[in-house]
Amino acid sequence: HYYRGRYRATDAENRNLLLEERQFEDTLIENDVVFHYKHLREVNDHGRTTVIEKGIDTWFALDTYEMAQYRDFDYTVMISGDADHEMLATKLKALKTHVVLLTWDPANTASTSRFLKEEVCTHIDMNSIISADSSLLQSLTIQ
Is-contact 4 33, C-beta < 8 A? Predict the structure, then answer.
C-alpha cells in the first residue's frame, strides 16, 4: 500500500507533473501496489501560498494498524523516515508484528528519524547495501 498527498489533475498539469505522476502510478499498478491518495491542500499564510499534505500519516497509521490486527500480519515493512510513525511501530509490536523499516536516502541527508529507527524491530538501510555493491550502484545511476 502506498499513501501520499496528490495534486488535483489540473494543478498537476499546470506544474508539468501529470505525466510523471501517471508513469509512477503505472509502476505501482504493474507491481500490484494499492495506492491511497488524498488531495493536497493550499494554505494562504500572510499572502504566501503553501501546499500541505494533511491527514495522510493518520490514514496510513490507522489502515496499517487495522490490517495488522485483523489479518494477523507477521511482518509489516514501512518505507518512511517520519518520526510520527514511531508510535505506529510501537503499537504494531504490541500486536506481535515484526516491524521492518526500509530506508533509502540517495542524497545521504540522514532524513530518517532516529526515534523511528530505534523503535522498529529491524532497520534496513538500502544505502549501505547499494554502496557495498558498486556495480549495482552504477546500474541504478545509469537508469
Answer: no
Q: Cell numbers at residue 74, please?
A: 507477521
CA torsion 130→120→78→97, rounded to 10°? 130
d(CA 115, CA 119): 6
Q: What are phi and psi of 19, to 5 degrees?
A: -65, -45
Contacts 24+ apart (CB under 8 A), 30-33: 33/1, 33/2
Comparing 3-7, 15-19, 116-120, 134-138, the range with the smallest average pLDDT is 134-138
53, 82 contact by CB (below 8 A): no
Q: What is the pTM of this model?
A: 0.75
Strands 98-103 and 122-125, how do they pair?
parallel
What is the C-alpha separation between 57 and 3, in angstroms, rounded? 8
- Lowest-confidence segment of 39-48, 90-99, 116-125 by average pLDDT: 39-48
d(CA 92, CA 117): 14
Taking the alpha carbons of 53, 12, 113, 77 in that order, is the dihedral positive or negative?
Answer: positive
Q: 80-94 burial, b for 16+ CB within 10 Å, e for fewer?
A: bbeeebbebbebbbe
